[in-house]
Amino acid sequence: SRVVITFGTFDVFHLGHLRILQRARELGTRLVVGVSTDALSYSKKGRLPIYSESERMEIISSVKYVDDVFSEESLDKKSEYIRVHNAQLLVMGDDWYGKFDEIKHLCEVVYLARTPSISTTAIIEKMKN
Ligand code: C2G
Q1: Whether the model pTM is above 0.95
Q2: Which residues form the Cytidyltransferase-like domain (predicted)?
Q3: ipTM of the predicted structure?
C-alpha cells in the first residue's frame, strides 16, 4: 500500500481542489489530507476562511478520493505529519513548486499542475459583484 499525503485550506471547495485530490489519490492506494486550521489559513491568506475548520474538514472527508483527514496546524510540521501518517508521497499543486524539497529525505514529493482559472479568491470576488 502507498499512502499519499497532501495539505490545504480547501476553502469554498471547488473543482481545482477536487482535481488535485483525485490526481493525488491516483498516485497511491490511500490519501490522507491535512486541512489547515483557521489560524494557519489566516497566516497564509491574510484572512479567515469563509468556511470554518470543522466545515472544511467535513467537506474534505466527504470527498470519495480522501481516506482520512487531520488538522494541519503549521507549515513546519510536515515531517511530523508525514511520519505519523506513514506517507510515502507528498503531492502539492505547483504553486508550491520546490517549496517542500527538503522533505525528500522522508518521502517522494510531486508537484501537480494547478487547475487553470479557478480560485477561491476569484469566486469570492465574483460573488461581491
Ligand atoms: N489547487 C489547484 N488548482 C486550483 C486551486 C488550488 O490544484 N485552481 C490546489 C493547490 O495547489 C493546493 C490545493 O489545491 O495543492 C489546496 O489549495 P489551497 O486550499 O489554496 O491550499 P494552500 O493554501 O496552498 O495550502 O502546507 C501546504 C498548505 O497548507 C497548502
Answers
A1: yes
A2: 5-125
A3: 0.98
